[in-house]
Design brief:
Blueprint lengths: L5 E8 L8 E11 L2 E7 L14 E5 L4 E6 L16 E4 L3 E5 H7 L7 E6 L2 H12 L6 H11 L4
Antiparallel strand pairs: 1-2, 1-8, 2-3, 3-7, 4-5, 5-6
């Protein structure tokens, strides 16, 4: 379930910070040792200004904006999956989790979570580059992504 490029929808995701559990999309960005790096994909919240649109990495340093944008209705997975609404990955919302805890919490596919697809290779590489170059991404996450990319596990 936690292989890189996997797009997962959790019916009730419990956040590290204790926020109320809610349905959430996540993209697995990497895995190293017993930890996985996942990016939250908010569909209802857009922190980018109105003049920012399109698909791909958005980096406006003078406005401290860095995110990866998914255009609505554009296929991003090998199975043709596309988000209905514009969706974003923000470097500041990329976290690492212990795999065993996630597997214990979300045991049953179809009940606890659903796998929506596998991200297309070119799309995934662009996301990783964007997140690794984002000043908003934590240094720890950047190191984990680099190690995962280099096959260190």
């Amino acid at each position: 379930m936690f292989q890189p490029k996997t797009l997962i929808y959790f019916f009730d995701f419990f956040f590290k910070n204790g926020n109320t559990a809610k349905p959430k999309y996540f993209l697995v960005l990497g895995q190293i040792d017993n930890r996985t790096v996942i990016a939250s994909l908010p569909t209802r919240t857009n922190q980018a200004p109105n003049f920012v649109s399109g698909h791909g990495c958005i980096d406006i340093e003078e406005r401290c904006i860095n995110c990866y944008a998914f255009a609505a209705k554009r296929s991003i997975c090998d199975n043709g999956f596309a988000f209905d609404l514009p969706t974003y990955i923000y470097g500041s919302q990329v976290e690492d989790y212990e795999i065993s805890i996630l597997e214990d919490t979300y045991r049953i596919e179809g009940i606890d979570y659903e796998i929506y697809g596998t991200m297309k290779d070119d799309e995934f590489c662009a996301i990783i580059d964007c997140i690794q170059n984002s000043s908003a991404t934590k240094r720890k996450i950047k190191k984990m992504l680099m190690s995962s990319k280099n096959g260190e596990a």
